[in-house]
Design brief:
Order of helices and strands: HEHEEEHHHEEHEEEEHEEEEHEHEHEEHH
Strand order of the largest sheet: 11-2-1-14-13-12
Strand content: 15-25%
Number of helices: 12
Bound molecules: 2-acetamido-2-deoxy-beta-D-glucopyranose
CATH topology of one domain: FAD/NAD(P)-binding domain
CATH architecture of one domain: 3-Layer(bba) Sandwich
């Protein structure tokens, strides 16, 4: 597709991800300076709680623990504080494979990912305060009621949906169309949730298409998830609202919560007494130096799906055979990292010439100003204009959907293959067909 675009426009479009990368690198350098001078000299030798990983979960846990003034809490994060540029929703795909991303790659797959370069799937994962909520597409989706109920049934006490719902509401600051639905939504929480601010006419058509098939327009976080919707997003005034913004910044700094970015945890320190294993501290690396901090009460591991399992294994908690192969002293033989599951994402592109949506031209200054001053316009868009949950014939229950559709108002190559293609890792061969 690139060849159809005049060279000058191609250079202009290509320079956008490059400029964003420059911003991100400047932020990394600034953060090194800030942490070295203003943060690192002031941490203590021990805290009541150490939270390892300041992502979507870790930021919330650390903040909630520090609500009790009697506790001192340390939050360790390998990445920096997010740069402002990452709060512009439209640029979401350019954030992958930057220093804000761990850029995990799967092994080449045989049964799937055949449209991706070398059959390898990109697993984007946040390496930044706010974690995945800085890199994701900001869709506010809590998950299905029956999944929570099932987890409780499997022995996880307290995880039933009726129990969890109170915490969703406590977390939420609903500012969109469900503001008065207090059965399912909260308005006093720290996490801002809004309606999307920029849609094409295709969003409406998507809902209509659902109705033609017999599905209703639903609140996917309400009573019944099955149906069609125009998604809600974790944004505030049209800007990305990460869990770091919700729980760590914006006036939520507390003297008993110490946030240490650019510090990479390498081990949980444990002691054995009376046959019980107790976590007593964390070893981490900061600017090439190894440091130790003691935890008087607990260590909380919230380093994401891959990171948490890896840290536990580095600490000797994991499958015996694997740890022996790597010559790691075994603290506890546990099936850490097992039962890993991922969902398949399948892209279908349809062209509709009257309603074609393209990203705004980089020199469209009205769009820039509309974003900066009004929190509106194409830059507020995460491009996911519609979403649906439906139950296929393989699902046990019509209210327990097994298919989720993300309806994008532009094709995977609408940006001339400059950003989305490498971000997902789509192969040249498949990209030509889109
Ligand atoms: C990807 O997988 C397909 C199907 O298994 C195989 O034919 C192809 O050679 C693989 N390509 C690479 C680059 O591994
Ligand atoms: C939820 O929606 C599905 C599909 O539209 C329907 O079959 C089901 O009866 C609905 N459940 C409730 C509780 O409304």
């Amino acid at each position: 597709m690139g060849s159809q675009l005049p060279l000058i426009l191609r250079i202009l479009y290509s320079s956008v991800p490059f400029l964003i990368l420059v911003f991100i690198w400047c932020n990394e350098i600034y953060e090194v300076f800030r942490v070295a001078v203003f943060v690192l000299p002031f941490y203590q030798d021990s805290y009541d709680f150490i939270v390892v990983g300041g992502g979507s979960a870790g930021a919330a846990v650390a903040s909630r623990l520090s609500e009790n003034k009697l506790f001192s809490v340390l939050l360790i994060e390998a990445g920096p504080k997010a740069p402002y540029i990452s709060d512009v929703p439209l640029i979401v795909a350019t954030l992958t494979d930057t220093p804000l991303d761990w850029s995990y790659r799967t092994e080449p797959q045989k049964e799937c990912c055949n449209g991706l370069e070398n059959n390898v799937s990109h697993w984007t994962s946040g390496r930044v305060l706010g974690g995945g909520s800085v890199l994701n597409y900001m869709l506010y989706v809590r998950g299905n009621k029956l999944d929570y109920d099932n987890w409780e049934k499997l022995g996880n006490k307290g995880w039933s949906y009726d129990n969890i719902l109170a915490f969703f509401k406590k977390a939420e600051n609903q500012r969109g169309r469900y503001m008065s639905d207090d059965a399912f939504h909260g308005t006093d929480g720290p996490l801002s949730v809004e309606d999307r601010r920029h849609s094409s006419s295709l969003a409406k058509a998507f809902i209509e298409a659902g109705k033609e098939l017999g599905y209703e327009e639903v609140d996917v976080n309400g009573g019944n998830q099955t149906g069609f919707t125009t998604p809600q997003v974790t944004m505030k005034d049209g800007q990305r609202f990460s869990s770091a913004r919700a729980y760590l910044y914006d006036g939520k700094t507390r003297s008993n919560l110490f946030v240490l970015p650019k510090a990479f945890a390498t081990k949980i320190i444990t002691v054995k007494s009376n046959g019980k294993i107790k976590a007593t501290g964390v070893e981490f690396n900061v600017f090439g130096m190894t440091r130790h901090i003691q935890a008087r009460k607990e260590v909380i591991v919230s380093c994401g799906t891959v990171g948490s399992a890896k840290l536990l294994m580095l600490s000797g908690i994991g499958p015996k055979k694997h740890l022996q192969d790597l010559k790691i002293d075994i603290v506890k033989d546990l099936q850490v990292g097992h039962n890993l599951q991922d969902h398949i994402g399948n892209g279908i592109t349809l062209l509709h010439k009257d309603n074609a949506v393209a990203p705004p031209h980089p020199l469209n200054f009205m769009a820039h100003l509309d974003f900066l001053f009004n929190g509106k316009g194409p830059y507020t868009s995460n491009n996911v204009e519609g979403m649906s949950f439906t139950a296929s014939k393989y699902s046990e229950n019509p209210n327990w959907p097994d298919i989720q559709i993300h309806f994008f108002g532009l094709s995977l190559t609408a940006d001339y293959g400059i950003v989305i293609k490498p971000s997902i890792g789509i192969s040249d061969e498949v990209s030509c067909l889109l």
